[in-house]
């Protein structure tokens, strides 16, 4: 099938900071086919990828596992060299001038830390201070702000190996920002965080973008991250960009649904809300109702509260993989 296109991200309101034109990345993968015999085949991780990101924009870059997200980020940082096409970040070719680019970008790679494993957290920050040649006053200002907003004060003297995943993620985010990068690449920045910590990180990123104009490219499997931070979302699947536009448009293209989990005071027949929602599951007094993700849950909650003996309820967001799967459902050639 050809690429799925959305209504577009809207007019560009600033100079382009990130630009990809026809970018491809092909890996040669060898596998054993018999005794002392191996076969080499090409795996196309990224295929004809073209997009731009204006300065100061927060963009969600999403897709299923193995879609090519991490490969894209690694090419944008200069870790990998594209097999074909052209990449520019702040006017720099990442693969040719990786050291020069490093001073202008910050990176947080999900499960991989940039912190020194056996040293206290503060020592990693001191190393960044020297390595990036950050002016002393600016370093102290950035460190104090990150420590306060990410609640790192009690962790500064703790060896990184003793930090929980959520604590380390906060530590990595701070380390990536000490040198005032123009662009920040975040791979699952809220993984392992509790609800309160997730909210704090999201607020921190919003403030960072608003106050300093930092451009953010965010990969995540948490739709709430996207909804609260991004006006624009790009979906990549099998190495191709299949959607580029607002999140509301993605829900429309994918016909995604949110789920209202309703706990009644007693067991009753399925709740009837007409065409507004449909019951997908009933277990005793608990019922699951699906409704379009682009719609509001408020009127449904009001009707249920008025017509049924309501004990409790919650809203579950659609899984990103499910949204993308529904984009392909029923399309010819898939």
> What is the number of helices?
10
| CATH fold topology of the largest domain | Rossmann fold
Task: Measure the end-to-end span.
Answer: 7 Å
Please give the radius of gyration in angstroms: 23 Å
Order of helices and strands: EEEHEHEHHHEHEHEEHEEEHEH
Ranges where pLDDT stays below 50 over 5 or more residues in a row are 6-13, 330-334
Specify the CATH homologous superfamily of the largest domain. P-loop containing nucleotide triphosphate hydrolases
Question: Strand percentage, roughly?
Answer: 25-35%
- How many strands in all? 13
CATH architecture of the largest domain: 3-Layer(aba) Sandwich
Helical content class: 25-40%
Can you tell me the overall shape?
globular
Number of domains: 2
What is the typical, i.e. mean, pLDDT? Answer: 87
At the first level of CATH, the class of the largest domain is: Alpha Beta
Membrane topology: Peripheral membrane protein
GO biological process, one term: response to antibiotic
Protein name: Methionine ABC transporter ATP-binding protein
Organism: Streptomyces uncialis
List keywords for this structure.
single chain; 334 residues; alpha/beta; Rossmann fold; 2 domains; four-stranded antiparallel beta sheet; 10 helices; 31% strand; disordered C terminus; P-loop_NTPase; ABC_transporter_ATP-binding; antibiotic resistance
Structural summary, described in words:
By secondary structure, the chain is α/β, with parallel strands linked by helices. It has 2 domains: 16-30 and 41-253, Rossmann fold; 257-317. It has helices spanning 69-77, 98-102, 121-131, 136-149, 165-177, 195-212, 223-229, 247-254, 298-307, 320-328, and strands at residues 16-34, 37-54, 58-62, 84-89, 105-109, 183-187, 215-219, 232-237, 240-245, 257-264, 278-283, 286-292, 310-316. A hairpin with a 2-residue loop joins strand 11 and strand 12 (286-292). It is globular and about 65 Å long. 37% of the residues are buried. One of its GO terms (biological process) is response to antibiotic. Keywords: Antibiotic resistance, ATP-binding, Nucleotide-binding, Transport.
């Amino acid at each position: 099938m050809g690429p799925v296109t959305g209504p577009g991200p809207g007019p560009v309101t600033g100079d382009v900071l990130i630009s990809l034109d026809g970018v491809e990345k092909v890996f040669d993968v060898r596998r054993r086919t018999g005794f002392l015999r191996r076969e080499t085949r090409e795996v196309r991780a990224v295929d004809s990828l073209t997009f731009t990101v204006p300065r100061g924009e927060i963009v969600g870059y999403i897709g299923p596992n193995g879609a090519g997200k991490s490969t894209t980020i690694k090419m944008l940082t200069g870790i990998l060299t594209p097999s074909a096409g052209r990449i520019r970040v702040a006017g720099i070719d990442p693969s040719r001038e990786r050291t020069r680019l490093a001073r202008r970008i910050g990176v947080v790679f999900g499960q991989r830390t940039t912190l020194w494993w056996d040293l206290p957290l503060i020592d990693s920050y001191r190393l960044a201070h020297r390595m990036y040649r950050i002016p002393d006053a600016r370093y102290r200002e950035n460190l104090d702000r990150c420590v306060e907003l990410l609640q790192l004060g009690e962790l500064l003297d703790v060896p990184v190996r003793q930090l929980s995943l959520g604590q380390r993620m906060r530590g990595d985010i701070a380390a990536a920002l000490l040198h005032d990068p123009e662009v920040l690449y975040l791979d699952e920045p809220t993984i392992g965080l509790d609800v309160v910590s997730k909210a704090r990180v999201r607020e921190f990123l919003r403030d960072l973008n608003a106050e300093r104009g930092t451009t953010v490219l965010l990969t995540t499997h948490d739709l709430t991250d996207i909804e609260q931070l991004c006006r624009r979302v790009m979906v990549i699947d099998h190495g191709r960009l299949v959607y580029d536009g607002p999140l509301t448009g993605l829900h429309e293209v994918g016909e995604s649904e949110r789920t209202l989990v309703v706990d009644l005071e007693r067991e009753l027949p399925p709740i009837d809300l007409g065409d507004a929602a449909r019951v997908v599951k009933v277990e005793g007094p608990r019922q699951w109702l699906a409704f379009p993700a682009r719609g509001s849950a408020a009127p449904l909650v009001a009707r249920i509260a008025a017509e049924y003996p309501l004990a409790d309820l919650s809203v579950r967001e659609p899984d990103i993989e499910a949204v993308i799967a529904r984009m392909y459902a029923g399309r010819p050639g898939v």
